[in-house]
Amino acid sequence: MSTTYLLRGVAPLGGDRTDVRVEDGVVAALGADASSDGATVVDGDGLVLLPGLVDLHTHLREPGREDAETVASGTRAAAAGGFTAVHAMANTSPTQDTAGVVEQVWRLGRDAGWADVRPVGAVTVGLAGERLAELQAMARSAAAVRVFSDDGKCVHDPVLMRRALEYVKAFDGVIAQHAQEPRLTDGAQMHEGVVSAELGLTGWPAVAEEAIIARDVLLAEHVGSRLHVCHLSTAGSVEIVRWAKGRGIAVTAEVTPHHLFLTDERVRGYDPRYKVNPPLRTAEDVEAVRAGLEDGTIDVVATDHAPHTREDKDCEWAAAAFGMTGLETALSVVQATMVDAGRLTWADVARVLSSTPAAIGRVAGQGRPIAVGEPANLTLVDPAARRTVVPAQQATASVNSPFAGTELPGAVVATFLRGRATVLDGVLVDPAQVRA
Ligand SMILES: NC(=O)N[C@@H](CC(=O)O)C(=O)O
Ligand SMILES: [Zn+2]
Ligand SMILES: [Zn+2]
After folding, report:
1. Probe target for ligand 1 pocket from 87, 177, 304, with the most ligand atoms within 8 Å of CB
2. 377 to 119, 229, 374: CA distances (angstroms)
3. What is the CATH number of the domain that holds 38?
4. Model pTM above 0.90
5. Residue 19 among the catalytic residues
6. Residue 178 CA to ligand 3 centre (angstroms)
7. Does 201 share its domain with 103?
8. What percentage of the chain's residues is helix, strand, coil (to nearest 5)?
């Protein structure tokens, strides 16, 4: 029998305080109807209750790079960050380009029990950009793939991109594009601008991202399919997506926490923790992505949690891998940059970090309203908490956080996956112990 919880005096979506009873995996009662009989009481004084967070863009690294992360360690990090579902990116080894591999990842997630794992299927075989992977077989597999991406690589061949967009319509899928024209980013090490010129590093121009997004929204319009833009990072990209939405094109876009917070000025110290794809941009770009998230042009915040081993990160700038961890700091960064700045409400946070990513990924039972009878996928947050990020204390198996040593607002007090606590009193609760 599962534990029953009474969340006392919590503020759903930051609104009025109420009691919430969690029983048998669902929200069983609200307000005066929510009795504490037989329940473990959680004091919710000052706490905001959100639907469990859903990440559209997570690298779990298994199979292939279990030295950087596993499905178990990555989903543990997800639970610690308040997530109840993650989309596991396809750039594993072997690539998630067959029904067999996506089912393996889905099963590892189910067995670990920390969060729902929705594998992303590769668009092309081996991410090579040459021929389409078995999209339909992945969609029809137990993993029920709906999001397809060659993330890390761009589907740069327009004919292949057109075919992929056409093909996924049959099973309500979406192509999530890593928008990067490869010929314009050959050997690029950071954002192309004033700082790259001063440092003498090969630059990565904004147009390399914007040209692909412009092409893809037109392709999506032409074939009448859904397009999702991964980790959009420039002011020009925001403008193109705003234009496309105005035209009625079915495009959605995500921004990462790090692109909401950090600029290319960080690269001056040559610390590879700040090396990421797409690169950290300018202060003007940061303001544009914040404004885009505020006005709804950008639909989603997605972590692009990209764990790397010390060997792959602790080296000279040019040799270091691209990527930063993010699952355990995402909510705090969104609070710092958007909520505390008065640009998003907690209800907006629920939209950009839960209901909209769940809708884009067609994730059943996640991102739902906090209402009686709904699955109890919930996150309880203390917005008044402050903490300094210490990567070695995080649940992720890697330490490449760009926020190490930074003080951030907010803390996850509890996470519930279908009524079972994966985090309680700010401490991870091992699913294996609950089952035993
Ligand atoms: N974001 C990154 O810098 N790296 C990602 C790939 C990606 O998201 O493009 C990775 O897999 O390490
Ligand atoms: Zn990417
Ligand atoms: Zn990625």
Report:
1. 304
2. 19, 26, 8
3. 2.30.40.10
4. yes
5. no
6. 8
7. yes
8. 35, 20, 40
Show the domain range for 209. Answer: 52-360
Cα of 304 to ligand 1 centre, how many Å?
A: 7
208 and 122 in a common domain: yes
| Atom 9 (ligand 1) nearest CA | 152
Give 344's Cβ-side CA count (13 Å radius). Answer: 29
Calpha distance 111→330 (Å, rounded)? 25
ipTM: 0.99
For residue 129, being part of any structural domain is answered with yes
Is 258 in the same domain as 166? yes
Q: In terms of domains, do 151 and 42 share one?
A: no
Residue nearest to atom 7 of ligand 1 (CA): 152
Tell me, yes or no, whether 95 lies in a domain.
Answer: yes
Residue 84 Cα, ligand 2 centroid: separation in angstroms?
Answer: 22
Based on the structure, what is the number of domains in the chain?
A: 2
- What is the pLDDT tens value at each position of the chain, 436 positions in all? 689 999 999 999 999 999 999 999 999 999 999 999 999 999 999 999 999 999 999 999 999 999 999 999 999 999 999 999 999 999 999 999 999 999 999 999 999 999 999 999 999 999 999 999 999 999 999 999 999 999 999 999 999 999 999 999 999 999 999 999 999 999 999 999 999 999 999 999 999 999 999 999 999 999 999 999 999 999 999 999 999 999 999 999 999 999 999 999 999 999 999 999 999 999 999 999 999 999 999 999 999 999 999 999 999 999 999 999 999 999 999 999 999 999 999 999 999 999 999 999 999 999 999 999 999 999 999 999 999 999 999 999 999 999 999 999 999 999 999 999 999 999 999 998 876 5
Judge if 18 and 143 occupy the same domain: no
Whether residue 427 is contained in a domain is answered as yes
Residue 324 placed within a domain? yes
Residue to mutate, 229, 322, 401, ligand 1, most ligand atoms under 8 Å from C-beta? 322
Instruction: Say which CATH number the domain at 284 has.
Output: 3.20.20.140
Token output for 293: 């998230």
DSSP state of 207: H
Q: Which residues of 380-406 are buried (b: 16+ CB within 10 A; e: fewer)?
A: bbbbebebebebeebbbbbbbbbbbeb
β-pairing, 203-204 vs 420-424, is unpaired
The catalytic position among 299, 304, 312, 348 is: 304
